[in-house]
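Quality-control log, excerpt.
Job 1 of 2 completed; input and output follow.
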Amino acid sequence: MITDCPKLRGDLPTHLPTLETIEIERCNQLASSLPTAPSIHKLLIHRSNKVILRKLPTSFGVLEIEDCSSAILFPGDCLPASLYFLSIKNCRNLDFPKQNHPHESLRYLSIDRSCDSLSTLQLDTLPNLYHLVISKCENLECLSASKILQNIVDIDISDRPKFVSFKREGLSAPNLTSLYVFRCLNLNSLPCHANTLLPKLEEVHIYGCPEMETFPEGGMPLA
């Protein structure tokens, strides 16, 4: 853990064969590539704007990036293959990777006040996602999914002024149990055919969506 070292500069050590967690917080002068220690499984970067994600460790599963105002790119424009938990908070200049091929490991994704360049989140590339939280992403307009989302169980969407509707054909997520939609000012409808495409949906919370006109075509699930 490296915390509150505002004058620290230079490179981080590179030979760290047994290191499992890297946490860098409030070190805004530290301009260094992350070490590629083979045993790392958790990486936290908070308020450290110059740390470079040039080459990420290959074995880690948890990544949290918070309060980093500088531009951040994922190497190769893709998520690390071993990643199963990703939280991005208050990083508006971070480019969410396009993921040209499915990422099989990711289970939890939270994007909060981040990724201003992201207008569409392609869920087909995250087939094993269980939990999705999207908040205050100014330019995100839609969630795109042309395939069945077999694993996702909850979706939480809030404070998205440009989000208008779910995909026209509906959202096929047979194991989705909860859907939360808060303060999406231009949202006019819920996913179509929820009665058949979302058969296990148990909880729906809608708050602060003044343009909502109708319930889904076909009605809601009976369960």
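Job 2 of 2 completed; input and output follow.
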Amino acid sequence: MKFDNFSIQEPDANVKVKDTFEIDSNLKVDSFSANNEYVPKLDADYCFDKATTLSILAGFQNNRRVMVQGLHGSGKSTHIEQVAARLNWPCIRINLDSHISRIDLLGKDVIAIEDSKQITKFQEGILPWAIQNPVALVFDEYDAGRPDVMFVIQRVLEVEGKLTLLDQNRVLTPHPYFRLFATANTVGLGDSTGLYHGTQQINQGQMDRWHIVSPLNYLSEDLELKVILSKVKELNNKKGQSTVKAMISLANLTREGFKNGDISNLMSPRTVISWAENYSIFNDIGNSFELSFLNKCDETEKSIIAEYFQRCFDSETSDSILNLVEQA
């Protein structure tokens, strides 16, 4: 994707939160009337968490720096994207893995051909481009970023934070409708669970610059059911709903088991959706469970997970899972 400047430089419309997000609020939020290639694809069936949605909307409307923190598979990045989609707000996601460097963010000298001559010119990175445009920039896996990269980001965390490009002797002033978001599994204090290898402790001076930290963890059973049925519509019938409710009950048992230290893996909503999708493909609840979750688990813990399965599903299906575990 080539990054270009926009024809529309500021919001020219607004949306009613009550109508667009089904949240009991009289708030109106600035939006763009025109869509473009940088606006995320809209998921009409997406289910919004009220508190998280209001935090993200505050980020867009009031230029707050918003971090969404929570366990894996809870829909942190998607939540931001789906808010942006309904505002027609250009939104770019960057995964802060260990290969993202200062050069990737800021830019570098490249060799180019101009007027049939080979020249060296500076090619801006994603951060200088985004900061000069009405763009929502989302840093995924924020707590996995390299320290040198994090210090590049630290300056632009301030609302009026200007970005200095030393190689170019330029100081960039943020566009008034530039927005900054992040998602993280931890709150910058490191990972004590063992789930998120590669995450780092974040400089507390930097954490202090985030105006809003919104937790987004797993949903209530009713809302999780609604989300799964919206994704796997062929199960949206009496029998299918009963099956999905049992899937969610099993997922909640794994979450409690993880919290109590009985098992070292848990089923996220993303995993339950995968299980439901696989079930609709294979039409076998036990086999689809094995493929979606059980095969990811420690061998020594499979008997515990099989017992969870036995609590939630009929004896015939449960026996097949128990036999599978015993054979392993």
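Post-run check on job 2. Confidence is low (pLDDT under 50) at residues 188-192, 194-198.
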